[in-house]
Amino acid sequence: MHGRAELQVDCSAESALIYWFDYCSISRSRTSSEEGNLARTIIEQSDRSSIVGTVKTAPWPFYWREFVFKTVWKRVEEGYILGTVTVDDKVDYGKTFRGVRGRTKVFVSFERVSGRSCKVRITQVLDLSGLVPAFVMNMKLQLSLSVAEEMREAFEEDDEIDKLGRMCILRRMQLGKEECTEEEEEIIDKALKMSERAKHAEYRALDCSDPRVSLKSFTHLDDDPSEPSVIFGQAEVVVDALPEVAASWEFLLEGRKARKNHFNEGGIDRNTYNASAYTILYQQVRKIAPGIQHREWRSKGMWKKVSDDKYLITYSDTADFDEMLPIKPNVVRASAHSILTFERLPDNMNVPQTKFTFIGRVALNGIIPHQIVDKKQPEFLTSVGTTVRKSFDKSDRIDRSRRDEFKRKLEVHDHNSYTHEENNIIDAMLHKMEAFDTKGSGRKKIKTPNSFINLETTTVNNTFWGRSNSTVRASPEAVLAYFWDTHARHQDKVDTVEKTALKPAVKSDHVRVDYIVKKAAHRGAFHEREFVTMNMWKLLDDDTYLHVCVPIEHTDKPRLERGGKTKGNSVMPKTRQGLNLGRMVRHRAEYFHAAKIKRGRDGGSIVEWIVSVDMKGNLPGWINLSVVRYNLHRATSLQQYFSNHKLLEEYEKIDGEILASSLMAKLDSGMGVGMEDSENDAIKFRVKVLFKTNEALRKLGEQYEFFEPMMVKVIKNKLRPGKDCEKKLNHLSVKDGERIGASLAGSLATNVSGSSSVGEWLARFPAMREMASKYSWFEPMMTSIGTQLLGEVSWGLKSRMIVGASLSFIDLVSDLLVGWYYLSSEDSEEHIYGWLTFGMVAGNIFFCTIIALVNHSKSTKAMLYDLLWIIVGMKPVKDAMTVTSGSDKPKHSYLAPVVEMTFSKCIELFAEAIPACCLQIYALILANERKTGVIISALLAALTTGFNVAIISYDMDTSPSNRKNSPWIYGYIPDKSSHRTIVFLCIIINGGTVVLSRALMVVFMCLVDFRIALSWMLFEMILFLAYKAIRRDFRYWIPFDGDAASMAVAVVVRVICKIITDFTSMPHFRHPFELGGFYWTLNLCVTQLGVFTSAYVYTSYGDGELPDERVWQLIMLLFVVWLTSFLTFLLMIKRSYVHTFICSMAGHQYTCYLFHSFSSDELKASVLFTVHRSHWISIHAEVAEWVGKNWDGWVNDKQEGFEDIKGSIPESVMSIIRGKGKGVVSSEGNSGMSSTGLSGERSVGGERTIVREVVGGVGESSG
């Protein structure tokens, strides 16, 4: 098969020849590897020739294709030529494969065009050999010729060439131009007249996705009759450049970037021709809509320097192209007339400003539905205005200069210049902030993935208020400037119709008045809202500023109705620049906010912000509440804004979470993506924009080319088969990044929390672990993204919940059906139905009782809500949803969400699954006729048990917090996804076979003599409890208050855990807090011994309900399956954790071991204060010394992570400290003067004594 390619490359002929001749270069070898090719190697090489071997991939079911060829080059008069032919040399690639030798011939010519450009022509003949279809040959030939595109991209200099072209046009525009012909003068005069008419013509304002671009639609602007397919429109925007610079940029139609954009935006064809120094001929073909013929425009463009501060460009229809370019068939000739004006404006913060106005008249001709015309008009006008604006945008520089100017004013401001009225307003807003806690009712927290933002709403005096507490990585002065500068570029919103600064009653640097009009919502269902607000700031102390915003009345913007009279809260504007708006009404809404900005550690700021909005107009309350919630999320925008301007070296954990919020945020209005764009395009565009605007991401993207495409794949969250990648960080390619990013979706599908998903993902790829160790913010960013992805597209979680809930529900239904079967049986087996029913009811009652005891501090309503989930059998679903939301441990519970989920599943196993399985096995053996449905029900019960055991073990082990706090126990599940799957299946099989074996053991003993079964189980239980008591490990780790309650819980939980381990061999219960590794393995051996013992007893002394041969077959089958799964499990887990299955360490010993092993105070506190105090009784003196030594630093917030430490200290400990300290330590952890009367001089230094006494007292009381 033959193929040809021709292209022009931005390099010399010599450079192009070297690129082609160096077949095994690093870049080309990497590209070949990414395409899936097996190998390429140099066999022989000289200055003018080389012999190369390569093995290329072929689509299934074809074999690999091997090519061995010789390449020779030669210099000719025009440049160089190169030839390639196949040779028969044998090559050792260092690996074996099954392939077919292919053949190829290539001829390439490199012709000089200029010193920096050459033309490359490629001709290739390809023969894959064998029986290969033509389409496969064609596909491989296209792939082979794609090296031409790779060469063009490698030497691409489009930006440099376009820059030279613009410089030439700019020089011509600055110098002027030659005299125009009469025809050209007539065209320019017509353009100027149309531009003037547009200033006074009636128009209809169009919605625009760019807040800085204003769009207008006219009925007509010239003398021609308007047709349905004729579009008159205008786009106007301020550009941060000189008029001649913007005009030269726009007039470069033959530029390479303009040509690329044309085809990327759906263009079909495009040709340009420079007719003179100031005119250009321009032809383009575009597709309009599916089912409608393409439209062609042929235009003549020219520019004119109207004055030193004004330039004009006009495009009008022309026939000058007709001789050079024949009219194409099946293309409709359209008409267009465009006027572009560039007028100089005053500089903005030393940045030149130009008002760019585009006026266009477009006749599409033919029969086109008006809906298409109405849709295309705003899209086209927005594209014109946004493209020019973004090409010169210097918004960050302007906003930064405005903030710096404001901060300079802060330094010289007279802080005593506030009037009595202004001080009253400030005091009132401070009172509102206090009232949020004291007088608020119905406070509700708003869920946010960012742990550095707390949002909540409340109702004060029947008005909705919201509060935000956030940490911002910027100085208080910079944050105050952010709030103050309401006219900053970054504050522009697409829903803002008008924003004007009004003159305040008293001129001052600390007061400003704004008039803002917000667009009508829901396509006119709600009227426009206008706000007249007074902004004011004040320095409260050396480290705290206050910014307030309150509604006021202003003489320049009175509340008016249609006739000019006052009308309550409504305004009826008559016209908007000459256009009658009819019945449009504006309501005067009210907006309050107060932001307290306090200097934090490391130069950051702590911002407490309250806000309230009353939209007026008799709207329902939920709308006001939704507006309040929307405004509260500006706290995230505040964080993102300052995070975007930080350097990569300054990034910390908080910046990672802020960055995650930016990456996951929906496209903001004005981002430039049309509504017709797909979700994937929108995600790609969003990430691309963020990598341009964020300083740290831009630097990271330049350093690692894979990072941006990887993040695109992460956020798309499309479940695809994952592939492992063992490359190091610096060796990753774009394809590797896409593969790694796409694999996160698989981790999200197998985990219930973002942290565990990301933990699995990091463990799978060495490069990502290297990334996380190099950048401390990377893992928090990915964890936050994973949490949000689980919340928004939680198909992984949903699949797990559906599978788990379905198995539980089907198991429940099967139990009922089996019970009904025995109830209606003629063999008088109604007692089995009674036992099954009693077991289910008793199990649910026990389940409800235990959950109620654990969460006894909950309100009655919350408690009944939890119990309802248990009764309907959907408690696992509710727990999984709680874990996925990323919620912390509630104050009314002793258990964290993930622990409560595990606890609930264990109770379900103990109270429902295990008894039901035993009863079904018992009924099945006694039945005269063993129905298939009854057998399936028993197997389903075992499968459900095994699945729950696997879920518990998997979630507990892969939890990042568990692996961080207990690395000695958690982490045995391997990092590789395929190995994880095998381990997960092994746990299911192991749990299912053990529960069947143990149930058979109990049933066999009961059928011989019930006392034998009871004695065996009692003996095992007593032995276990005695073992725990002798080792001083009887008390359970849950930190219950009171010795009696703690002992009662210990007895119940120890019995439950022992029975669950007997029937399931759950790997999680090898934890020293539970059975311990040694006893877990001993228990497993005893269980298997008991199974064989019960089978012997039954076959020797039983009544023969089941034949002896069938008994031993069944026992041996289960034993072989269990042994195989268990050995596979041990072989697949990490070898470093095998010893944990035989370790004899007790719970209190493990607590002490972790306390001594950790160096972080936060981890030490998590070890001590989340377990019962008896676990650290033996080291209470060390604990007292540690707390006393570090308390001063903690209470003064000098130790990082102190908030987490304070949050983990039990209330009982804090209450003892407060009781003995009498004010030395408050509930917030702040220090103060003692009021105990002990000489009245007890300072912070005395806290050590108190803490040591408290810790020592706790230890003694528990001894």
Q: Which SSEs are present, and which pair or pack?
A:
Blueprint (H helix, E strand, L loop, with lengths): L1 E8 L3 H9 L4 H9 L4 E7 L3 E8 L7 E12 L3 E8 L12 E3 L1 E12 L2 E11 L6 H12 L1 H8 L3 H18 L6 H19 L2 E4 L7 E5 L11 E10 L3 H9 L4 H9 L2 E8 L4 E8 L7 E14 L2 E8 L13 E3 L1 E14 L2 E13 L6 H22 L3 H18 L7 H19 L2 E6 L6 E8 L2 E10 L3 H9 L11 E7 L8 E8 L9 E14 L2 E8 L18 E2 L3 E2 L2 E2 L5 E3 L1 E10 L5 E10 L6 H12 L1 H10 L9 H12 L14 H15 L1 H9 L3 H10 L17 H16 L4 H11 L1 H9 L3 H15 L2 H29 L6 H25 L5 H12 L3 H10 L12 H30 L5 H27 L1 H6 L11 H32 L1 H21 L12 H22 L12 H25 L6 H25 L14 H11 L3 H8 L11 H16 L6 H7 L2 H11 L25 H16 L1
Parallel strand pairs: 4-6, 14-16, 24-29
Antiparallel strand pairs: 1-8, 2-3, 3-4, 4-5, 5-7, 7-8, 9-10, 10-11, 11-18, 12-13, 13-14, 14-15, 15-17, 17-18, 19-20, 20-21, 21-31, 22-23, 23-24, 24-25, 25-30, 26-29, 27-28, 30-31
Helix pairs in contact: 5-7, 10-12, 14-15, 15-22, 16-17, 16-18, 18-19, 19-20, 19-23, 20-21, 20-22, 23-24, 23-26, 23-28, 24-25, 24-27, 26-27, 27-28, 27-30, 27-32, 28-30, 30-31, 30-33, 30-34, 33-34, 35-36, 36-38, 37-40, 39-40
GO molecular function: cholesterol binding
Keywords: Membrane, Transmembrane, Transmembrane helix
InterPro entries: STARD3 (IPR051869), START-like_dom_sf (IPR023393), START_lipid-bd_dom (IPR002913)
